[in-house]
Design brief:
Blueprint (H helix, E strand, L loop, with lengths): L9 H13 L7 E5 L4 E3 L17 H4 L1 H8 L3 E6 L2 E8 L1 H5 L14 H4 L2 E8 H14 L1 H36 L5 H13 L2 H47 L3 H29 L8 E3 L1 H15 L5 E7 L5 E3 L1 H19 L3 E10 L2 E8 L6 H4 L19 H11 L3 E6 L5 E8 L4 H4 L1
Parallel strand pairs: 7-9
Antiparallel strand pairs: 1-2, 1-5, 3-4, 4-5, 6-8, 9-10, 10-12, 11-12
Helix pairs in contact: 7-9, 7-10, 9-10, 9-11, 9-14, 11-12, 12-14
């Protein structure tokens, strides 16, 4: 006579244990659900493994609106009248078989993706409103230190904004004296050619003004870059508040120090870019290092995750130049390409040695340049952007810097879509000849 059923779930127990250990600091909020909305792991043990009895007690019934939104995507976060839900999708069959490509590109059967779990974090509405208040009261000093770092970044951005406004006012003042600004700039440029020192001073001021303008457009992306470690700091500080284990508290404290240093490094890089070029002689410059730095700054300012930047940097000889000016050339061209792609597309950046010159190509999949505008891209104050997106000085400044180092820069349209910019600098050029 049958007296019962014995179920052995050894491997499942290990998986659930690892899941709980990974989310130990937020265990009261996290849960693991199967595709039918039953709990595999829950803050309430009574909720778990209901699918084995088909008792109908599911997350899907407890939160029907939230469940529909969770099923609609692989990962995301949203708020509703009950609180905040964060979720991601796990494909256990793919991972069990060692198939890292979750898109099925490696030839895995579709059924491997049809079997999935949902890892969900749920924070009730009442905790969303009370937890920050308690945190701010108990950690005012830490919060003050974070605000100080943000204040430094704000001061730099405010300074950049003021300089940018001053440049705009100056340009507008000059515009009132002539309906044909291109003729006025050409005449002024001819006058500056008679005095090399005066020309160098004007170009230097324009370079600095363009830096300030670029910092203004980077503000949102840099704010996002600072927010990421800031959230980690806040989370670790909250964990310290509730943790009694001294060793764990030390680990959380180390995390706070690490991410605080990351914020400080971002602010330091921002200040370094905003600083005027030093008055020093030309020196050997690694083009690839400057390209990598410009790409890094661009990625920090991106607000869209649908823009992909691909790098193909080959070993190239050094050139004689000022590193900060070469970096600004690359940053301005890359930023123009990113803006042309309108938050979606691919940029390819490559460097190589060609016919005794260092050659850099920057390709984007943006809207391209019309034939009527292609010959005017380096004209000062010429722009096809809106009134708040630039003054048309970026590429003019880039051309001046490239010419200063006996280089060349050209723009052309790709056969399919987008623009290609080619920049070349001489290798082994005599420094005195270049000056």
């Amino acid at each position: 006579r049958k007296s019962g059923i014995l179920l052995l779930n050894y491997l499942g127990e290990i998986l659930i244990r690892d899941f709980r250990e990974a989310a130990v600091n937020i265990s009261e909020h996290t849960m693991l659900l199967n595709a039918d909305g039953y709990w595999l792991s829950s803050p309430r043990p009574d909720d778990e493994w209901g699918f084995m009895y088909n008792d109908g007690h599911t997350f899907a019934k407890a939160h029907p609106n939230a469940w529909r939104r969770i099923l609609a995507g692989d990962t995301g976060q949203f708020h509703d009248e009950k609180g905040m839900f964060s979720y991601t999708t796990i494909f256990p069959l793919l991972h069990a078989l060692g198939k890292a490509d979750a898109d099925g590109k490696d030839g895995s059967p579709v059924t491997d993706r049809e079997y999935y779990w949902k890892a969900v974090s749920y924070v009730p509405l009442r905790e969303l409103t009370t937890t920050p208040q308690n945190f701010f009261r108990q950690y005012q000093f830490l919060y003050g230190a974070i605000l100080a770092l943000l204040a430094i970044a704000s001061i730099l951005l405010a300074h950049a904004s003021v300089r940018h406004k001053q440049t705009v006012i100056q340009v507008e003042f000059e515009r009132r004296f002539s309906n044909r600004l291109e003729e006025m700039v050409e005449k002024r440029t001819q006058e500056l050619m008679d005095t090399q020192a005066e020309k160098d001073l004007v170009v230097k001021q324009l370079i600095q003004a363009e830096k300030m303008a670029a910092l203004g457009t980077m503000a949102s992306g840099i704010g996002h870059e600072i927010n990421n470690p800031l959230y980690v700091i806040m989370g670790r500080a909250e964990a310290i508040r509730d943790e009694e284990d001294v060793d764990l508290c030390r680990g959380y404290g180390q995390d706070i120090v690490t991410h605080s240093k990351k914020i400080a490094e971002i602010v330091k890089n921002l200040a370094g870019y905003a600083r005027p070029a030093d008055e020093h002689d030309w020196e050997p410059v690694d083009v690839n290092d400057n390209l990598s730095e410009a790409i890094s700054m661009t990625r920090r300012s991106l607000l869209s995750d649908r823009i992909e930047i691909k790098e193909d940097l080959n070993p190239v000889p050094v050139i004689l130049a000022k590193a900060e000016e070469i970096q600004q050339v690359f940053f301005n061209v890359i930023r123009n390409g990113i803006q042309a792609m309108r938050e979606k597309g691919t940029m390819e950046i490559a460097s190589r040695q060609k016919d005794g010159r260092v050659s850099i190509q920057i390709r984007d999949t943006g809207v391209g340049i019309s034939a009527e505008h292609l010959g005017r891209v380096f004209d000062p104050f010429f722009t096809t952007k809106g009134p708040d997106e630039g003054e048309g000085l970026g590429l003019f400044i880039v051309q001046q810097i490239v010419k200063k180092y006996s280089g060349t820069i050209t723009f052309g349209n790709r056969k399919s879509m987008g623009t290609v910019c080619t920049i070349e600098f001489p290798v082994g050029e005599n420094k005195e000849r270049m000056i």
